Amino acid sequence: MSNQTSTSTILVSNTSYLVGAEIVAKGSRLFSIMAMAVYFTPTEYGAVMLALTIHEVLRLLLRSGAGVQIIRASDEALPLFLGNGLLIQWLLCSLLCLIQIVIGWSAQWAFPEHDIFALVALMALTYLAFPAVSTRVFLLQRSNRMGLFSLISSICIIVENITIAIALYFDAHMMAIVIAKWCFALLWFICFSLVPSVSHKLSYHKDTFCLLLKSSSQIAISEILRSLRINMDTFIAARLLTPELFGIYSFAKSAGIGLAMSISQAYTSALYPIICRRTLKNSNGHKIIFITTFAVSSIFMLQALAVPVYVPILFSSQWQSSFDTTSLLCLVAVSSVWVDTYTTFLRSEAQYKRDCHFCGYALFVSLLSITIVMPNSPTQLAATLLTGSVVWLLFPLADITSRYLQPNPA
């Protein structure tokens, strides 16, 4: 009983640290959105958000490295996992840097209305700052030191968002987002370099490296599908909508689901180390997670209700038409936090194939919904995505039901 109470306390504590830090950090994000809304036209805003989305799709692949295995590794296997994991992180970040530059170069044909090659290519260089401290970050999460992790993460995000506003004030224009990303990467590297950590260095052990590479590859497929599920609407909107309408949609997304998804990611980051301890596998543990997930998802429902209040107050008249779109996208985040919690469970059990299957299913549902409706306005696109997000829930519901009905082997 005491062990269950302790675990519950850790979960609530971790969630409070990360979600609280994200709320503070995203307050600064709202500040940067306000600055961009002042200095950019809707067309320019859309171009900037398209470049940031390309970067975000690939940045989420950083979660597909060795981190998942290092966090759940046994104490005996940890030294080998750290050395080989560091090697994998260097390979992953170098590859992501090259891929993003190539994608940025290709974007001039995919999205000819938006000149974003320089933005995408320069942001790609930030990946090279992450691998050197990546294993230190994983060890912090492994030891449930989420207070320190969330503090550093929040400081970096706040500095990034303030840098955008300052750079815009000094006429950096669209290059402001590049300068901000560089500041974030440099500060991230410096802060985590100062965190005490288990001594380890880059190494290669064939069996361990292959094991980590195999699991990382499976997680990478899931992350690609998940990242596309979250961001594919931006690419579709850039193709279907006029540059001005795309700018309005991009603003609605950044003011709505963009803020909400960061809180969702913070919650699942807090949840994963706890699940890996195998102390939340009973019915009481599931109840705790259900209540916590419901509380987090309630934040998004409240945000959807608050949109008609804070958008008119914070933003000028050219953005007022985004009310309905922003509210609908906030509701999409409600489904997202539930399915992200489900996939966190799958990863804690090393069920990477099932994780891939779900991510593929969710992406297919969203694409099929958009193909059937062919929305021609931001609000229609948001409503279509909301409908698809409800259908996402059928997969985990069917999976959980089948497990519950499965006969006990004992």
What can you see in these coordinates?
With 410 residues, the chain is mainly alpha-helical. The chain is built from 16 helices and no strands. The protein has helices at 2-39, 42-59, 67-72, 78-110, 117-124, 131-142, 146-169, 176-193, 206-240, 243-255, 257-276, 283-314, 323-348, 352-373, 378-392, 394-405. α4 (78-110) runs antiparallel to α5, α5 runs parallel beside α8 (176-193) and α14 runs antiparallel to α15 (378-392). It starts with a helix and ends in a 5-residue tail after the last helix. The model has no long low-confidence stretch (mean pLDDT 83).
- Biggest pleated sheet: none
Average pLDDT reading: 83
First-to-last CA distance = 24 Å
Order of SSEs, N→C? HHHHHHHHHHHHHHHH
Strand content: under 5%
Provide the low-confidence segments as ranges: none
Any chance you could write out the topology, listing elements then pairs?
Layout: H1 2-39, H2 42-59, H3 67-72, H4 78-110, H5 117-124, H6 131-142, H7 146-169, H8 176-193, H9 206-240, H10 243-255, H11 257-276, H12 283-314, H13 323-348, H14 352-373, H15 378-392, H16 394-405
Helix pairs in contact: 1-7, 1-11, 1-12, 2-4, 2-5, 2-9, 2-10, 4-5, 4-6, 4-9, 5-8, 7-8, 9-10, 9-14, 10-13, 11-12, 11-13, 12-13, 13-15, 14-15
Concise account of the structure shown:
With 410 residues, the chain is an all-alpha fold. It has 16 helices and no strands.
Quick tags:
410 residues, mainly alpha, 0% strand, globular
